[in-house]
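STRUCTURE:
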């Protein structure tokens, strides 16, 4: 059963322990950028009035700022279950706030915390991006021409079915030789790929990925183990030459 909203008194789901609410907020508050993004709130509503997402979703940047400023632990936790994922990260709110708050920056901190704590909302939102993430970490590229097909991106809507271009021919027309590949957007050598993976490993990105999608984490780990072994073999051959 999914966890209850912290402030939902009629839910049949188990209540969220106070200790968990405090732990989540402590992680948000301890973020390096937290004090830079939150100064207070004049309750003017300019951020919400100019927010594109507020026009289409049950979402208010002002609400996020007020929840954090008041340290409303239940409200903060509830917002992390759905509302924070409505933000488009356009930062119009930060540009317009007369008090120099950045609701968009605060929401990014809350999103990072949701991922760190393995919240179901983070898993649900990030699941559709797993194939792109796999491509990025495994190859150093986010997207490749051979991925843009009706079968691969059926969820992109009916217009994806109109793609029927001679991609091999078009790629050869690009003047940079490294862009002739179809499997990746460009070629990334194995050393660079391993260095990128090592950065993600050292900075905790892979630890967060394991909490969100354990299967994807296992696949990516296997891919990089193979690349590290291949690179070690290549170095050994070079040294022996």
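SEQUENCE:
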């Amino acid at each position: 059963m999914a966890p209850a909203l912290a402030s939902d008194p009629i839910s049949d789901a188990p209540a969220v322990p106070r200790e968990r609410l405090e732990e989540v907020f402590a992680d948000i508050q301890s973020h390096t950028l937290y004090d830079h993004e939150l100064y207070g709130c004049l309750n003017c509503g300019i951020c919400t009035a100019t927010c594109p997402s507020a026009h289409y979703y049950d979402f208010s940047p002002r609400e996020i700022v007020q929840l954090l400023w008041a340290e409303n632990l239940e409200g903060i936790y509830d917002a992390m279950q759905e509302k924070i994922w409505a933000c488009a990260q356009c930062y119009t709110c930060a540009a317009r706030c007369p008090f120099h708050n950045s609701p968009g920056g605060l929401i990014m901190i809350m999103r990072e915390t949701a991922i760190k704590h393995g919240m179901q909302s983070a898993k649900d939102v990030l699941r559709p991006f797993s194939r792109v993430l796999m491509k990025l970490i495994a190859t150093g590229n986010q997207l490749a021409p051979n991925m843009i097909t009706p079968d691969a991106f059926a969820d992109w809507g009916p217009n994806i079915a109109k793609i029927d271009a001679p991609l091999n021919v078009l790629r050869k027309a690009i003047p940079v030789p490294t862009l002739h590949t179809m499997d990746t957007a460009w070629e990334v050598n194995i050393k660079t790929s391993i260095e990128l993976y090592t950065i993600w490993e050292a900075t905790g990105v892979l630890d967060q990925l394991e909490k969100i999608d354990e299967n994807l984490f296992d696949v990516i780990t296997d891919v990089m183990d193979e690349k590290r072994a291949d690179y070690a073999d290549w170095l050994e051959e070079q040294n022996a030459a």
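REMARK: Residues 126-240 form one domain.
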